[in-house]
Hints:
This protein is an alpha+beta fold. 20% of the residues lie in helices and 36% in strands. Strands 1, 2, 3, 4, 5, 6, 7 and 8 form an eight-stranded antiparallel β-sheet that branches. The longest helix is centred in the last third of the chain and has 10 residues, at 89-98. The protein is globular, with a radius of gyration of 13 Å.
Amino acid sequence: xxxxxxxxxxxxxxxxxxxxxxxxxxxxxxxxxxxxxxxxxxxxxxxxxxxxxxxxxxxxxxxxxxxxxxxxxxxxxxxxxxxxxxxxxxxxxxxxxxxxxxxxxxxxx
Length: 109
């Protein structure tokens, strides 16, 4: 199964969903360092197409949250893209494990 790569501009935009609620999307960029803090996030991957945030723990993501008020990643947010990979949780989790720089598109709503 081939995963899709899509430009960030296509992923980060407000869209209307059938229930007439707004979906907000924003970009989180994290830089991992050898021996540095872990990502600090627990996710549910059972959907198969996105990672749903279960919990933000101490780590790079909680540091992002502290430094970016208004763009905090929260429980039930969805990671819909990691480094351009969309719709393939297996490849997104591999990117999280092995890439030094993570560009994640987070969706809420």
